[in-house]
Specification:
Elements lengths: L5 H16 E3 L5 E3 L6 H7 L7 E2 H10 L4 H8 L5 E2 L2 H10 L2
Antiparallel strand pairs: 1-2, 3-4
Length: 97
């Protein structure tokens, strides 16, 4: 059954449902209700990192790029190791509980 508002009304309802599932962090990074950082937003805060990079390098670059406390605290929780690519960082962040 289609909404009385038509396709636009249905689309608006889907957007409202998604927005209820997500929140905007202080740093502008979209976090889903699970608390995980959006990988695209995370990588924007890591712009300019030379890979391979150690955890300290990631934290320092995120600080320089204006990463909020949500980004910085997540990066600080990463294992202290060398990350070969942005994808390796995203995988390590996703594995955090």
């Amino acid at each position: 059954m289609q909404s009385v508002l038509g396709p636009l009304g249905a689309a608006a309802a889907r957007v409202r449902a998604w927005n209820a599932h997500c929140s905007l962090s202080k740093s502008g990074g979209l976090t889903v209700a699970s608390g995980k950082l959006n990988p695209i937003k995370l990588q924007k805060h890591l712009k300019g990192v030379g890979y391979p990079a150690r955890k300290e390098d990631l934290v320092r670059r995120a600080e320089e790029n204006g990463g909020g406390e949500d980004v910085l605290s997540t990066l600080r929780r990463l294992p202290d190791q060398e990350y070969s690519t942005p994808a390796a960082v995203n995988a390590a962040v996703s594995a955090l509980s």
